[in-house]
């Protein structure tokens, strides 16, 4: 967990690690976007290596794609001293990490996140996995990468939509851990945010929380703020091609709903709820969620990994910067919150 | 690793653990054999639970069966506080353990090995995994079970062939770690072996080695004696239905071949080689391996997980009880050893 290196460009953080190369073989996992926009900046820094290219998209984060990756490593006769570098967003990092962690019972991997979302969230904390049927990250393991190399230059390669998606996790980190930074970011447009400040800030919060509770027995659960409802919303819309939502867009919805429930329980005052809503709507707009959609979304929450014994567990806010976890939600509360969001 | 409990019957070792039940749900994984012969002895001891039944056989130790197990856990809404009890041989333990270790990034599992092979080998040491295409245990993780419950009574349910297969690992443990016990067992027929003594003896050797080197960076490799050649022989014959070999039968072949190579390198004297051959042939007979078979077997060794940088690594004996690991084998040596075995 101390092996997170952040810099504007990739070269100064990658070179010290890769020049001390003790690996028998190296592979770089990319999708069509990172192959085109990021790999050229990385290629020259690497010793002889294999490129493994998969198609982008959450809908490909599954066992079938894992089989393809495992087969590529097998065909190239990767042994246990091999290294896989995951160059891409959350899908590449989660799935590539899972494949590395399970190939021959585990080879080293390096996370080289290229999206804002992956830089401030997915690449730190050792959660790896793939989707299984309707369920996000249902199959996976906890394992730390050999290193996380975060080059903020890669953010320039991203479409605005991707930046917006990643920003949701930054908002989350502020809401659960830093009221001062929250006051700062909520007064700026998305275009005015300072990534050179916010990326390390988010990484520090996440590292601190994960270090205290690596396998999510307790404190780490606070990182799931917005995710109980948000994940279910994301899973639901994944099946509805006409209105697909990016992860952060779904989490933004989840944060409003869970803030509303926090307010209804008298944990969060009205003004704070208002600020959260106002800022999130200004960036993400409002997704259309009908009451029919809501009916289909709720059962998906039952499979959330944070649940225990058939209840739906979530994180609520007792004021900005002060989260509480293991909060049971009732179905009525969830319905009301989604209704509140939509109206 | 201290959680290995051995007793003649299942009840006294299982009850203390299962009565302190802190699990939200329990599932028992069985195959058609353990469902019939072992599950009835276990059922009454368990609180309410789910039975997950799969078909037996190494050829089903694959991703497809994992998907079935994951789906069963999902359908029953198992959460992270669920428990999976793997009641069966090596396939059930390795695959059930892998499914538990990856379901929602890991739930607890208990190994309840019912075969001699699983009791003295597979259930101890935290190696979990499944086969992938032609490659044995190619996808997996290292993870310790919550407990290992070894009831030697289950051995009475086994056909002689299964006892013979498991005995190969006991022979291996003696050859790599206890010359005195080797002298004792090699002078007895299979029917005269004392399982109540040999099972805890083998478990102790394995536990000691694994405790020193859980992820097989060094010492643990000695447990692979007989397996470099044996695994490849097993993989090869898995595809040849007319002459399928059990794991231990293949390892027995591997131990003769690797002992022969040890002798050719002047590590092992002729008499020791002769004793090994004599005893193994007396129990396992001699499998027919043609030179054509040998040609097909050798490439399979290239994918062995113990290899590094394209070489074939094995464990040799510098005398009984004194193994050396990281010994590179040449293709010529391997060919000669298989030829020696067959002639």
Please tell me about this protein's structure:
By secondary structure, the first copy, chain A, is an alpha/beta fold. Chain A has 2 domains: 154 residues, 3-Layer(aba) Sandwich (Rossmann fold), CATH 3.40.50; 183 residues, Up-down Bundle (Dehydroquinate synthase-like, alpha domain), CATH 1.20.1090.10. In chain A, strand 4, helix 5 and strand 5 form a beta-alpha-beta unit. In chain A, helix 6 packs parallel to helix 7, helix 6 runs parallel beside helix 9 and helix 11 runs antiparallel to helix 12. Chain A is globular, with a radius of gyration of 20 Å. The mean pLDDT of chain A is 93. The interface between A and B is large, with 37 and 37 residues.
Q: Secondary structure elements and their pairing?
A:
Two copies of one chain form a homodimer.
Chain A: E1 4-7, H1 10-19, E2 26-31, H2 32-37, H3 39-43, E3 50-54, H4 63-75, E4 83-88, H5 90-102, E5 108-113, H6 116-122, E6 127-132, E7 135-142, E8 147-151, H7 160-177, H8 179-185, H9 195-212, H10 227-238, H11 247-264, H12 270-284, H13 291-301, E9 312-317, E10 323-329, H14 331-342
Parallel strand pairs in A: 1-8, 2-3, 2-4, 4-5, 5-8
Antiparallel strand pairs in A: 6-7, 9-10
Protein name (chains A, B): 3-dehydroquinate synthase
Domain 3-dehydroquinate synthase C-terminal (chains A, B): 166-307
Cofactor (chains A, B): NAD(+); Co(2+)
Q: Nutshell version of this structure?
A:
Chain A is 48% helix and 17% strand.
């Amino acid at each position: 967990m101390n092996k997170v290196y952040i810099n504007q460009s990739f070269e100064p953080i990658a070179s010290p690690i890769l020049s001390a190369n003790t690996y028998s073989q190296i592979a770089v996992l990319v999708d069509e976007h990172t192959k085109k926009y990021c790999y050229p900046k990385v290629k020259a820094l690497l010793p002889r290596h294999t490129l493994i290219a998969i198609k982008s998209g959450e809908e490909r984060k599954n066992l079938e794609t894992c089989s393809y990756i495992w087969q590529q490593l097998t065909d190239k006769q990767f042994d246990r001293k091999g290294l896989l570098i995951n160059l891409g967003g959350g899908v590449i990092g989660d799935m590539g990490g899972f494949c590395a962690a399970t190939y021959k019972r585990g080879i080293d991997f390096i996370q080289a996140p290229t999206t804002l979302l992956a830089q401030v969230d997915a690449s730190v904390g050792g959660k790896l996995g793939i989707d299984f049927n309707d369920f996000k990250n249902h199959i996976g393991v906890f394992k730390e990468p050999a290193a996380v190399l975060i080059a903020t230059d890669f953010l320039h390669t991203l479409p605005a939509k991707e930046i917006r998606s990643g920003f949701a996790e930054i908002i989350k980190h502020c809401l659960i851990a830093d009221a001062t930074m929250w006051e700062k970011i909520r007064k700026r447009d998305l275009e005015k945010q300072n990534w050179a400040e916010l990326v390390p800030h988010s990484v520090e919060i996440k590292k601190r929380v994960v270090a205290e509770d690596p396998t999510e027995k307790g404190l780490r659960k606070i990182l799931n703020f917005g995710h109980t409802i948000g994940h279910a919303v994301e899973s639901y819309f994944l099946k509805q091609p006409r209105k697909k939502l990016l992860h952060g867009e779904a989490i933004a919805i989840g944060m409003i709903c869970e803030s509303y429930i926090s307010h209804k329980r008298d944990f969060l005052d009205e003004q704070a709820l208002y600020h959260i809503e106002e800022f999130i709507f200004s960036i993400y707009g409002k997704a259309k969620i009908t009451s029919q959609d809501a009916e289909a979304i709720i059962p998906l929450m039952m499979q959330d990994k944070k649940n225990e014994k058939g209840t739906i567990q979530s994180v609520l806010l007792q004021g900005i910067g002060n989260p509480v976890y293991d909060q049971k939600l009732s179905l009525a509360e969830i319905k009301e919150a989604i209704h509140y969001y939509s109206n």
